[in-house]
Design a protein that fits this description.
By secondary structure, the protein is mostly helical. It has 2 helices and 2 strands, in the order βααβ. Strands 1-2 form a two-stranded antiparallel ribbon. α1 (6-24) runs antiparallel to α2. The model has no long low-confidence stretch (mean pLDDT 90).
């Protein structure tokens, strides 16, 4: 198992997502506002618990 470091998520995932949120926030319709709230909740959880929760990737092969 290889766990990606939190920095990788900030640099390559959460950072760009939050920048995009700010770009569309003013013109967001109801569906987009809901997506923005979900994104912000996910980011808040990651901020609060990055040491306890993360993302792991598994590589499997058939035997």
């Amino acid at each position: 198992m290889h766990r990606l470091p939190a920095r990788a998520w900030w640099d390559n995932y959460y950072g760009p997502r939050l920048r995009r949120v700010e770009e569309v926030r003013e013109t967001a319709d109801a569906a987009m506002r809901a997506a923005i709230r979900e994104t912000e909740a996910e980011v808040a959880m990651f901020r609060a618990h990055a040491e306890d929760y993360g993302y792991s990737f598994y590589v499997l092969r058939a035997v």
